[in-house]
């Protein structure tokens, strides 16, 4: 594949052509939300100006066109992710997708939904396993499901270098494990987790596997079918797409057997005043009016990434990731959260600056035109594991140039001198 030209790609993103505090914008917050290329903005505007209409059921011309574009978007995005169209359920994002699974299992436990739904019913004492590095979106839904059903949440610890403790995983995942929910790439650690190994452990005990693919999908070739998990959640706005759209990918027999979460219009076969029958997946999970323009925008994002090639994106990612990690290691007083060597990573790193609070670091960088994330990044348990309440996170995308990283590192090296901190205070931040 051709090497990615990030400088040329940067030109496709109108928002990046501005200055912040008189400095060219260096946007290193794609882990929170990526910027969107003109092609994505155009796709949404074009749909809304030309073909906007409610999908399915409509007898008029625009409804037909909108339906074709909407289902075409499903085909494009599912294909981009290594799945078939009927294996992609549109959701508002990853948070919704993960909650959908947890609530569907809750409904199965209550005996609601499709006739086969008892397959996922939980008994008190059944175990839901997560890792210590989960985003709150892949932790709290399981805590809530446990509280509703009498199941218990167990966790797989993360080593201090940021890698998952696979020995511990092998002992935590056991006979009572019903669900193993884990992240492909943590939004704090940036390390690519061994999906196949964890999925194999889960499979050996017959547990359902749920992958949080939010931070992997934008950065590496993602082949749902090959990963060996049952379900995977992703988010459009982190992969150059619009807000309000994301999805749940699922193996067909799992989606077929899971009962619906939300119910209402557009997901039913027969309805009487007493009961309803449900359409097959994915419609079974898509009650109500769908995010149509957003799906079409997301398809444009998938096409944009596909045109560059995800192998090329991943290769470029490795270059940026090394520049970032190696650069951070050189800055005095900086501690990377999860500093494992020789692991596959995406261009994302969270770090602590000894003696300076993360928020002060963020402010200092912003004054120099550099946008980073500060706080706990919705991963409080992981921060607690590192003895922190907050960190600073820099994260890249296809539009991130070498220069962006260098400007960031240069600015970062000025933080401690600016705040009058030298040596090692051990004070943390
Ligand atoms: N999981 C991870 C790893 C994330 O980084 C995020 C977004 N910060 C989410 C889940 C939630 O995604 P969304 O807010 O798009 O629903």
Mean pLDDT figure: 96
Low-confidence stretches: none
Count of distinct strands? 17
Terminal CA distance: 43 Å
Distinct small molecules: 4'-deoxy-4'-aminopyridoxal-5'-phosphate
* Global morphology: globular
**DSSP helix fraction:** 25-40%
Main β-sheet, in a few words? 7 strands, mixed
Please identify the structural class as seen in this structure. Answer: alpha/beta
Biggest β-sheet: strands ordered side by side in the sheet: 4-10-9-8-7-5-6
Strand content: 15-25%
The tally of helices reads: 15
Rg on CA atoms, Å: 22 Å
Spell out the key features of this protein.
17 strands, 429 residues, alpha/beta, binds 4'-deoxy-4'-aminopyridoxal-5'-phosphate, 4-stranded antiparallel β-sheet
Give a verbal description of the structure.
The structure is a single chain. With 429 residues, the chain is an alpha/beta fold. Helix content is 37%, strand content 16%. It contains 15 helices and 17 strands. The strands form 5 sheets. A 7-stranded mixed beta sheet has the order 4-10-9-8-7-5-6, sandwiched between helices. A hairpin with a 2-residue loop joins strand 1 (19-20) and strand 2. Helix 2 runs antiparallel to helix 10, helix 3 (61-80) crosses helix 10 (292-308) and helix 11 packs parallel to helix 14. The protein is globular. It starts with 5 loop residues before the first helix and ends in an 11-residue tail after the last helix. The model has no long low-confidence stretch (mean pLDDT 96). The structure holds 4'-deoxy-4'-aminopyridoxal-5'-phosphate (PMP). 4'-deoxy-4'-aminopyridoxal-5'-phosphate binds at residues 93-95, 135, 137-138, 183, 187, 212, 214-215, 235, 237, 246, 378.
